[in-house]
Predict the 3D structure of the following.
Amino acid sequence: MSHEDATHGPAPMPAVDPEPMHRAVDALAAALHEYVGTAVGVRAEFGAAEADEDPRILALENRIGQLNATLFDTLHDGLGMHPDLTSSVWGPEQEQDRHEHEVPEGAVIAEPFYLGFLVAAPQQPADMTLDGVIERLDEAGEEVAKRLLDGGYEVVEWAASRGQAAAFGDDADDDEEDDDR
């Protein structure tokens, strides 16, 4: 992945062949369709926890992760871009459903706290991938939030994230409020 070639330069690139990019997307889409079919079948056989750890699911998640990397490399090599195609972002309508709470009147201003982990991929062959880590952290986060609430704290918001700490209060509305002060 060189950053010294024309794809990373300031000049527009009018003659780009999109075919390799479309092939990478098609391969990823096919794997995602296979995942859905397999997940439905595995879930019909097992409970949710067992299905999450089923070797067929783990193998497909690993393959999808590799195809995501291939798509990234193809876009990067062809366009010089650094696409973020693996983040999960919920839209505003979904956010409202998830965050119906307000900070109670008289509560002290909330502060973010972080607990970080540096997790290495399992040695091959393994029945798990790094993609399963976020789900485990999410489950643990639910438990920690419950324990904090049980201890009398107000948990305004919590998140499990991969790659960097979740940013709380970084909405555009918050920025506008900061500008007004």
